[in-house]
Design brief:
The protein is of the alpha+beta class. It is about 40% helix and about 15% strand. It contains ten helices and ten strands. The chain has a six-stranded mixed β-sheet, sandwiched between helices. It has a two-stranded antiparallel sheet with strand order 4-7. A hairpin with a 5-residue loop joins strand 2 (about 45-55) and strand 3 (about 60-65).
């Protein structure tokens, strides 16, 4: 009888495929995914970069995996993880109250704009608002708690990511100027970092569970990967958007069978509408689901 898709995946153990060119061992697993992303990029214009990793086995595939893309609001997942790492070390408390003024507010702050002044918000509430609502002021308040963009970059380096960098705060970090290395990552680096944070041991078990719970409760991501991946997959994600057509999502997913799968998708330098970019990510999600079926 013909081999299953999972058996075909076994041929890829320990290998990473780049671009749309598949090694012969990839077979049906990567061919459909590569064709889908290539077609979407041609339709949208600009660049579409992505990386997908299967935990435990190390099986992975990427397109434009080592090219830089703007982090946009995906940085908030990393900042929340850095806060949790400080909690793990006994340097921070999630129940600490943070009081902020109206002058601290930046555009798109649906939660924090309602909590100006005393008693403020707890650090846990700030992290939750930043991830579930992508509240921009909450993003900056998380940065305040970890030493700013420099502190976040230092934390990322400490867990093995030598690529991702944050240089600015909200809203300036979202300019996504072509060729500007500030506030950028690569799909390959981000997929690996999300795996370390949500699936690996970069955080304590309790902090890892809390981060995954916040990302699972994401309230601004329904039309993206969640619309394309199989409904049986659990998904914890964080989205982002910025200038020059930037759109992004990072996710840790749990298929009903097999190891967790981490995903990083970045769209850049396109004039496509937000709805078109969202639909493209959903389409990629469907292709990922098909690739990892048995």
């Amino acid at each position: 009888m013909p081999p299953t898709r999972r058996a075909a995946l076994g041929l890829l153990a320990g290998s990473v495929l780049y671009g749309s060119r598949s090694a012969s061992a990839a077979g049906a697993w990567s061919d459909g995914l590569a064709a889908t992303v290539e077609t979407i990029e041609a339709r949208l214009g600009g660049r579409v970069g992505m990386a997908v990793r299967e935990a435990d086995t190390g099986r992975a595939w990427s397109r434009r995996g080592d090219e830089r893309f703007a982090l946009t609001s995906t940085f908030k997942a990393l900042a929340a993880a850095a806060v949790l790492a400080r909690v793990d070390r006994g340097e921070e408390r999630l129940d600490r109250s943070v009081v902020f003024a109206a002058g601290d507010l930046v555009p798109y702050s649906p939660a924090t704009e309602k909590r100006v002044g005393a008693p403020g918000m707890t650090l846990a509430e700030i992290c939750e608002a930043a991830i579930t609502l992508s509240d921009n002021t909450a993003g900056n308040l998380m940065l305040d708690a970890i030493g700013g963009p420099v502190g976040l970059t230092a934390h990322i380096r400490s867990i093995g990511d030598t690529t991702t960098r944050l240089d600015r705060r909200e809203p300036d970090l979202n300019t996504a100027i072509p060729g500007d290395p500030r506030d950028t990552t690569t799909p390959t680096a981000m997929a690996a970092t999300i795996e370390r944070l949500v699936v690996g041991d970069a955080l304590s078990p309790s902090s890892r569970a809390r981060l995954e719970a916040w990302m699972t409760a994401d309230r601004v991501a329904d039309g993206l990967l969640r619309a394309g991946l199989p409904k049986t997959w659990a998904i914890a994600d964080k989205t982002g958007a910025g200038g020059n057509g930037a759109r992004a999502i990072v996710a840790a997913t749990r298929p009903p069978a097999g190891p967790p799968v981490t995903i990083a998708i970045f769209i850049a330098e396109t004039s496509a509408s937000m709805a078109e970019r969202n639909a493209a990510i959903a389409e990629i999600g469907a292709a990922i689901g098909q690739a990892f079926e048995f």
